[in-house]
Design goal:
Largest sheet: 5 strands, mixed
CATH architecture: Sandwich
Shape: globular
Structural class: mainly beta
Radius of gyration: 18 Å
Helix content: under 10%
CATH superfamily: Cupredoxins -  blue copper proteins
Order of helices and strands: HEHEEEEEEEEEEEEEEEE
CATH topology: Immunoglobulin-like
Oligomer: single chain
Low-confidence stretches: 1-30, 247-262
Strand content: 35-45%
Mean pLDDT: 85
Distance between the termini: 40 Å
Amino acid sequence: MGRVPALATGGAIFFIAAAGLAPAPLPAQGAGTGTITGRVRLTAPAPANSVIRMGADPRCSRATRGQRLTQEVVLRSADGGLANAFVHLRGQFPAAPVAAEPVTIDQRNCLFVPRVVGARVGQTLRITNSDATAHNLHSVSKGNGFNTSQPKQGMVYTFQLKTDEVMMRIRCDIHSWMTTYVGVTPHPYFAVSGADGAFTIARVPAGRHTVQVWHEQYGVLSRTADVKAGGTATIEFSYTGKEKPGGVAIQELVIPAGMRTS
């Protein structure tokens, strides 16, 4: 089906993504905080993801022999849930501790896993080469730039993220099909949508907030949510499939049927 078993299949990849976020301790829920939950949807049929051809590196070809791998740019569930969307709050927030645990990305079967992660400014990004071939890590970034090689299996590169950036792209200059994205924020209020498009941002300070979602193929949508202490604001982002990566659209907060804000 075009995914690496145990790593890039729907459930596993999002478990890894959640583990990589490593959130820092936050204020207790109810102490002037609430929750934002919802879904990111694609209302149009998903376009076909391009097939990855690894013939340029025989080691990659051997590692993935018998598999038909595709780029996981658009992952849409049967009911329209859109995976790998980075959801975050905009604005200024009180300082919160940065997690000591690193955000992790692996290179396995000549793919970056996961494709999208979130991290804090000041947090450590940890990237491992689990392949028996050389990789290169090239961050396409103004404030979080690096370009380094990992010629041997088991090598680990760490980088302390310096500035907020949505989104930071990392590529491998040796294998042109390899791409991963890191959403870097100055606060802990972010999430990556799962296989069903769902997301939850917990312990959000009470008040009106601008919530923004980014997707690799469809760009940015923005909405507002009113968060009450001890309550849950439920919102939905809907892409039509006509959006462009560089575009920004504003969606008013309209609670769909069956969803709630409290």
